[in-house]
Amino acid sequence: MNTASPTIATHSGTFHADDVFGVGILMGVFPSHTLIRTRKQELIDAADFAVDVGGTWDAATGRFDHHQRGFDGARPAHEVDGITKPGVGYASAGLVWSAFGTAYVQAWAVAQGHSLNDEAVAEIVRSIDHSLVQYLDIVDTGQGDVSPGIFGLSSLIAQLNTHWLEERGMDGKTKAQLQETRFREAIAITRKFLDHAISKKL
Fold first, then answer.
1. Crossing angle (nearest 10°) for helices 118-128 and 92-112
2. b/e per residue 87-111 (b: at least 16 CB within 10 A)
3. How many CB atoms are located within 10 Å of the residue 118 CB?
4. 49-51 and 63-64: which strand pairing?
5. What DSSP element (H or E) covers 82?
């Protein structure tokens, strides 16, 4: 795996908050990277990281997909009033955050000139998962609808996808370029919210 300047792959076409978030985390941890959006398996296999595509979950090899048959990745079960409840199932946002949330918070702290010990970083990672990331997973996997209408980060990010009125008269290349632009806009917005949320945990 090339961690100096890795290639990050995710699927082309319509994006959702979980792939936007997962890719954004990796971009923050690896500022020198190449991003590709594709459905071509050979390009996905050749990438250092694959988010929400590829049919494999294996953090050790940079694979963060949750769509494969039999996937059962979830946060640990927990007790509420003496009753054991299953943990929230993972989508790609949670898979990437569980593997790289610590590195992202550490990179953010360095960039902001903050010095955080391991305990503080771990608490921020846990808190962000509890207050934000698990809800992205809940929406993406259909475990629940955490907010009505288009209110909520997942729904708002989805609004940035292109629609048929915009796409009229576009050839495939132009449409793909517009989708790429919107995807990067979605990442910038999501990371801005995330970074502010992290700063409020200090």
1. 140
2. ebbbbbbbbbbbbbbbbbbbbbbee
3. 9
4. parallel
5. none
Q: Copy the structure tokens of residue 147.
A: 């907010």
Q: What is the pLDDT along the chain (202 residues), one digit of tens a residue?
A: 788 899 999 999 999 999 999 999 999 999 999 999 999 999 999 999 999 999 999 999 999 999 998 899 999 998 778 889 889 999 999 999 999 999 999 999 999 999 999 999 999 999 999 999 999 999 999 888 877 666 789 999 999 999 999 989 999 899 999 999 999 999 999 999 999 999 999 8
Q: Which two tokens stand for residue 197?
A: 């949320």
Strand partners, 80: 83
Report helix, strand or coil for 84: strand
For residue 101, the one-letter residue type is: G
Distance of CA 28 to the CA centre of its chain: 11
Q: Token pair for residue 165? A: 């009125």
Integer Cα distance of 120 and 126 in angstroms? 10
In the block, residue with structure tokens 């996905």: 44
Can you give the pTM of this predicted structure? 0.94
- What does the alpha-carbon distance between residue 167 and residue 170 come to, in Å, rounded to a whole number? 5
Query: By the 8 A CB rule, do 92 and 18 touch?
Result: yes
| Residue 53 · residue 9 · CB < 8 Å | yes
Is residue 123 exposed (0-12), middle (13-18) or buried (19+ Cβ within 10 Å)?
middle
